[in-house]
Protein 1
Amino acid sequence: MDVTDTEESVRQAAATRTIRLEVARYRPGQDSEPVFQDYDVPLTADWAVLDGLNYVKDRLDGSLSFRWSCRMGVCGSCGMTVNGEPRLTCGTFLTEYGDGPIRIEPLKGFPVIRDLVVDIDDFLAKLSSVRPWLIREGEELPLTTEYAQTPEQLDAYKQYSMCINCMLCYSACPVYVLNPDFLGPAAIALAQRYNLDSRDMGDRFDVLNLEEAVWGCTFVGECTRVCPKHVDPAEAIQRGKLTAALRSVLPWSKR
Amino acid sequence: MTRPPGSERATSTYRPPRDAFWFARTRNYTIFVLRELTSVLVAWTVVFLLLLVGALLNGTFQDFTALAARPWMIAVNVVALVATAFHAVTFLNLAPKATVVRLDGWRVPAWMIQGGNHSAWLALSVLIAYFILRSP
């Protein structure tokens, strides 16, 4: 018998219980708008929604398109709308939804390229616009100096550095969904991540102190609620507002 | 954001139409919008207090109390009191998001900042109540 453990477990599961996935399909040139297609997949305790989608892709319908990579909540590529909520599908288990069905749609707020794949070019442009790297001045290449940090200095920004760019916060943010020009939660949190780093010499004030940046936020707080890495972008944005307000009153204060 | 030349997509992406009722889609969005709407009644409370100050300065306090005693005005102000209290509580609870207080490297937890805010609010309210309610 050259049956793998996985195949055996799939067969056993299929013989027992299944759960229905209602998956949004959008095939450019064929569909004028997304339509739902139902698939029944095995319901096992250790299967995430992403495992269900991979089962569909492997066994039921090879034409289904979606992004995924690491399956362990690190790469940030499998974000989708699951029963109306932006979720990482690798960390969302089928058993959370009882007998189902589970409705799977692409992340809200982004143009849909195909099925569950969204266009992330706008987010990538916003991300690079905040210069998410250490800005240093007056240093000659090659850089050989080591800049040690105390645990306190690390603690000042560590939380914001946990962002995996999964864009769930953008999808949960009604400000971004209604106004795509809004810089958005993750980009601002990452700007703050570098602003709060003791080795960084920039302040990114030019990109943060704008109506389309921190001041566009109305503090709905959904970005923080849906963040799978507990980054708390809402906090980063409110701190940015306070810094910007203080700077306009106290021109000599840097941060 | 513009794309570099030559990278146009062969097929069109789907953009969902703007959702006019986005605030009704989830409970959290609805609560958010209600919280924002309480600002209108907070503004009314400020206007009402300015009317009171104006009446005191102009010596028309009797007219003001007559206006304030009308049933519809009492109804409006009861609603405004509830809305202002709700707004103040949620505002003070969100304060730790904007202010990160560090004491010798130790980050003051959110509940302490919130507790401090509410305590200060309570102390001020008691002080004001003392001056207003004490017998002449």
Note: The longest strand of chain A covers residues 18-25.
Protein 2
Amino acid sequence: MTTKLFGEPIVRREDARLIVGRGRYLDDIGHFALGVAFVRSPHANARIIDIDVSGAVDIDGVHAIYTYEDLDGPMAQPLPVLIPHPDLTAPRTGYALANGSVSHVGEPIVMVVADDRYLAEDAAERIAVEYEFRTPVVGVEAAERAEHAVHEDIPDNVAARLVQEFGNVGAALRDAPHTVSFTQTIERSASMPLEGKGVHARWDAVDESLRVYSSTQTSTSVRAAIAIKLDLSVDRVEVIAPDVGGGFGVKIVHPWPEELLVPWAAIRLGREVKWAEDRREHFISSAHERGQLQRITAGYDDEGRLLALDAHILHDHGAYTPYGIVVPIITSTQLLGPYRLANYRCQVDSMYTNTVIVTPYRGAGRPQGCFAMERTMDRIADELGLDRAKVREINLIRADEFPWDHHLMFQDGRPLIYDSGDYPSMLTKLRELVGWEDFEARRAAAAARGRWLGIGMALYVEGTGVGPYEGGHVQVLPSGKVLVSTGLTSQGQGHETAFAQVVAQELGVPIEDIEVHTGDTRRFAYAVGTFASRAAVMSGNAVALAAQAVRAKALRIAAEVLEVDVADLDIVDGVVGVRGDPGAVLPLASIAVLSNPLRYAFDEASKAATQFARFASDEQPPVADDDEPGLEGRDYYSPVRSTFASGAHAVIVEVDPGTCAVTIEKYAVVHDCGRLINPRIVEGQIHGGVAQGVGGALYEVMAYDDMGQLQNASFMDFLMPYVSEVPQRIDIGHQETPSPLNPLGIKGAGEAGVIPGSAAIAAALEDALGIRITQMPLGPSQLFDLIRAAGDGHADHTFNHARRSQEESA
Amino acid sequence: MSLIEEQFTVSLSVNGTTRPVTVPARRLLSDAIRHDLELTGTHVGCEHGVCGACTVLLDGAPVRSCLMFAVQAEGHAITTVEGLADANGRLHPVQEAFRDCHGLQCGFCTPGFLTTIAAALEEYEPGADVSDEEAREIVGGNLCRCTGYQNIVKAVGRAQEIRTERAGRADGDAATSAGR
Amino acid sequence: MKPPPFGYAAPCTLEETLGLLAELGHDAKVLAGGQSLIPLLSMRLTAPHTLVDINRIPGLGGISITPKGSVVVGALVRHAELLADESAHSANPLLRRATSQVAHPAIRNRGTTCGSVAHADPSGEMTAILAITGGSVRVASAGGGQRDVSATDFFLGPLESSLRPDELAVSVRFGAPAARTGSAFLELARRRGDYAMCGAAVTVTLDEDGAVSDVRAAYLSVGPVPEVHDLSAAVTGQPYASADWVAAGALAASLVDPEGDLHASADYRRRLVAVLTERALAQAAADAVARTQEAASCL
């Protein structure tokens, strides 16, 4: 075998270009392309009375100004509902440019194309839009009250009502020895990649073909959408995701208005056109996520066994539902976590509000589900005066109970069946890693310093690697270079490295010979996209299968040439050798030459494949019926259903009683994503996820006022953590329970780190303060309010806190 | 309608090469570097000075190139990420360290970190220790959404180690050649 | 987010600059470090007719210490330069304590101390420092020569100063600390480097017996202008080591009238005033002792 690569923490191959400034991101392409700016709605809910472009049309350097009236054919139709679902009974999508009304601040109304972005912004400033103002609906409670409607023909503001149910919750709650009910909220945040979205398009009028670059998580689907909306044959459209400066979910949504308008304008103008989203646009016209209000009732027994759970969730869906109800589905299924439960009912009402659309952001509904379940566990423990870890333990699915069928349907339309895991062992590891048992001593030491310490934990299960499929193509060139392509895109996950590791291992070639391409429809046209922690599972297995096909063919040809049995052959460092006969070798490069029977030779090497040089049977065609020229293979991986990764986080927070400032003293992670292709990359994913989890728990919020204005649409006021806000260290423990569902035994890791952040930190804050935490995120100002209210008797103390105080006074 | 703006010809000295660009006064230095000089290693993440992705060195000191106009850069020496490697193409220690420590994921914010750290390490003699706390201070003004900063902090320390190793080798080489 | 078009002048002398300012009046905006102005331009929240870039004027740089120990900082001195300046630090340690909290290093490398005072942002560190040190701004105009405006007269409201459109702030002077006086600066921001939710710059003066004789504080992000509050009443005459700083903090909280915003409610700000004052005063008292001992050992 070649040096073992699968599972090794090798350094990333993409870094070579990225650290010297030779990455190629969207705005690095097309320096001479025309620039685009949009007039976007300043109002959250309004009818458009008039658009006056007269102040802008004559500006030198302005090439075109487009409004809805200019759109034709399918472009004039609403944007697609990408993921239809029977429960999405009132779907709504916007138009590429607003058609008579706007439903959130930031919605595009007019497109300006000019020599550059500066001029385009000058022109956009001179366009006057007259509005008839309507009362906006902001927040799910206002949406539920339905005094005003986001869309006039949907008076209750309900986009979808989704119910997930098994057992008999009503009866089980009636019969349960104890019940507890509470309401909690989690605020909106957003993916917020450092690179905004962007689109560059070039129309070749002679070839009648379109090349589009988009900073997207799915180039194949953008291609399909553009072809349909622009009425082009799909073979005339190629879409390439260049280096993408982070995605985290927001770039899986497509087609964004700009992804259609930029190529549409490029064709009409016969010019290269580019739009690179600026940060303000990203805040008010890309997507957000997370916002939910959860009303929970749980029934449990004396030992803390959860007997029934009833959750009614109001999900803030923003103004439109282009991405369907994926987030509500994930919340309502993944809420179950690693626990056994016999009676469950979850109703998610997906509410329209006059705010930016809500689509998946890393975690995609799971952080909210985890928040619901884990806070329920904390609540039960507190009511019973039991250790929070013990209550979790008694409810965990046991290691010998897999596959575990929840009898629900998951986001891929497939049954929610956990394939493998070992949750009790994970919990044990977590307690050791964070020092759960020794915590009270630590708390006392902090109290002596005048600081409040608290500890919390949260567990989760994450369905990863959703279908329907991904494909891989592996080709050995006569030069010996191995080309690998897959259709899904990369946004920093190290695909060029991980997939090369898989292929190097499967094919037996040096990794240096491998070149990986992703997200380019010219190289691989069939793909779904990079989201839902699916890339390693889906494309990892697909390229492994493709590499195996190449290996089989190489061995077959080598066996013929070397006149030995296939079983006696192996491939080491790109050379086929015969076991026990060091002299009999054939490099893959030579096999690649031989695999393609030639009439013409261009160099010495290719002579070997020409008609008069090559041994051939008179009775056989040069390319057999079941064969094809070239040393290449293509295969697809399509899973029966998702695989389920899991993890557990614990955190110790310190609160300064004077300033209410919170610092994270310790952050521990136990993580199980099956077999690891590259542990270094997986750890990096966890680090980044944890930082986003901390951001979501303590800093990030989309602060809408009652008029639907986003008050903090800048990096100054939307508080993405700097290094000073993240834990100084993240202790990680790995656990590997391979997935039985795919050949490599892997599960996804991309989103895991972010999922339990809010739940664990809420628990730790609650433990530190002794005051019930029912809203996240919390900054020091909100904590101050909570502490003061509790002092005045207006907020709930936890039972544990009351007990501790009693003990102290006794 | 003509909104003709006065154009200024500015000599921009970037990475040791001086090139003239003709720009209006409002052209941001970040845009001039990226689109007029086509040095696209410098990235733009917020255009309001918070994220640090556009950080370049102005006479050796890190500044936000989105918070300067190109016309203001005349007479100053600018270094971008493309200018960090030495004349022989050998990577700057911090570049090597970022690769070794997995200090980047999507790579978009990376050039701003690299320039910032490269300048900060100049304050340290080879062999001096850069503590994690100092490392966090050095990178404290740059946003990264991918890495959670853990490996970036490690990379700062690693970069200083590489500087020390290189200085040791250079001393060794000098000693060897002196001995001949 | 691209700036709107504007006229641009980069005069090479102070005289030329003042002439331009006089000629353009309200149409002109001075560009020094630009770290506050350029974001406003890029967001198109301001659209000056002409930017007068003062970066090429010789003689506007430099930090000097007056015989009485005031620190005079020229209009083109960047925060980083003041931060690193040893003579300024020994004259008044409060300057380094505050300057180190201004944004992040890359901003400090370009932003000017004088510009941040002229910007009159009540959440800016240097406005509070100018106030607590009893400092002043030297302004120049084409017709009027130069005059010194005290901090009290300079700050009129948030982002509003008494600087006239034809005037240029050519330097700021931070007053010298009195004898047996220590200082401290504490601030709390949501993220390190952000505008503070609240910051406190305080001084404590001790009498010859080590009892507290004078206590003053100025705050960031608390009022429309950086007012200086006399907190002496709470602690005068108390030995520094056992002074009731909590009472001084409570007094401070009763004197201020902060407003709430996205990041901090008014009540929370008032709490921060109390807590930061209490903690800063304890530090300042220790500093006063150290400085007094230092001064004694120099004699």
Note: The CA atoms of residues 64 and 72 of chain C lie 5 Å apart.
Protein 3
Amino acid sequence: MALFKRLAETARPALSFTLDGQPASGLLGDTLLTAMLTCAEHLRGSDFSAEHRAGFCLMGACQDCWVRLEDGRRVRACSTLLEEGQAISRDPGRQP
Amino acid sequence: MKPVVIVGAGPAGISAARTLLDHGVTPCLIDENLRGGGQIYRRQPLGFQRSARQIYGFEASKAQAAHRTMDELAPLIDYRPQTLVWNAEDGRLDLLDNGRAESVDYARIIVATGATDRILPVPGWTLPGVYSLGAAQIALKYQGCAIGERVAFCGSGPLLYLVAYQYAKAGAKVVAVLDSAPFSAQCRALPALLGQPLTLAKGMYYRAWLTAHGIPVHQGATLQKIDGEQRVSGIRWDDHVLACDAVAFAHALRSETQLADLLGCEFAWNTLNRAWLPQRDNAGRSSVNVVYLAGDGAGIMGADAAKMAGERAALAVLEDSGVAIDQRRPAVLEQQLAGIQRFRHGLETAFPFPEQWAAQAPDALMVCRCEEVSAGEIRAVVDEGHWELNRVKAHCRVGMGRCQGRMCGLAAAEIVAERSGRGIEQVGRLRGQAPIKPLPFGVEVQP
């Protein structure tokens, strides 16, 4: 299920990526956050209870949208544009 | 020669850069975003097709003018997009530029760091599907998306009606608008708001448009809880329950002041903003000799004021550097800014801060979403005798997480003040720390 709903700009070229190993697809110009939340419901698990989080401020302030790329980099999903073939993984967070 | 550095390419930063360049001074403009415009005039990625009118509505011509100026300036100045300023010390800024660590020395610096939403948490606010009002607007402006299928807009402030209107206009389903401010407050504010009739008319238009299109607007309605297990399923207020799958909420804006703090600027309590703000004179000079402040980062006044304040601060930089300027211009700008300041007082009357929030926040409410600290845990620290905010932070970690208190700091202060029986201005403010935003491991450092 998706969290976000596309209302406009849907004619852009498609980009394929993987989310936790599963094939997924976004559009050129999507942020990682948009690409992930138009096909999934969360971005990460929280640090102290592993509850699902899906970002909050979308402007690089809240730091609640960090995801991991296959080269090991951790990036803010709200301020990183999607690239073809990216392998994005979600941090499950930590249980108490 | 060390450059004049401007931090932030929103309305204030762009206008400051333009003014400096027009007087023969080539600035270095550093901005965290991919493209200039700031949050208010945030520009969609290349390849998107919507017109400025579709994205910015009544503000289209102002947004286009800001973008045009940015495009003209970019090749002529030292423009550094996608660059984070994470520390400031002794005339030097530490930067993170696309994963590379760099530094830049400055002769003078204009801080135009803007604002984020002012958040008063409610139970359920960390659920997927809950966003700040600014976030909901960015999803639409920048990505052409709604934050859900059925969206509720809550909180207060001018942005509340604007974003709800923009969503409905773009084809999203807006299930309700909850304004915590009573209608009577907006009536009381009218005399002050009439000073900027155009801005007032736009606000009234959004409100009327929503009603005319059958969107329920509840005034004096305070969001109490957001329901859901894995994601949002509804909201509650008073005796009402309403199903929805997304919520956008905020109570106006808060200034982004960390950099001014690291630069050593003196702060003072500002009653209008209900916040500690770096002090500035009418020209934008801070308490530190070579540091200037412009735009919402030094007190919320909106985009039009930010543009004027950017120009005014740049003129102050020029005056202080011995460059000739049109001596009539500063007075014109300062007079216009004073007019907007009066309007701002009216807005504060129309959308008053919900002072009862702290007393009503349940103990189980998670205030700090990074460190997962509840209102009850904060109160327990206060009950041990602590009331200074940094001391409370040391004891329970509220505000100590990745966002450095940007989302929870003001709410935590409200709880500490209420519990300790002190005024909100008496409990102190969270100190800024470097790095002001998280840095990744493995940063390349310049030799």
Note: Chain B touches chain A through 56 residues (CB under 8 Å).
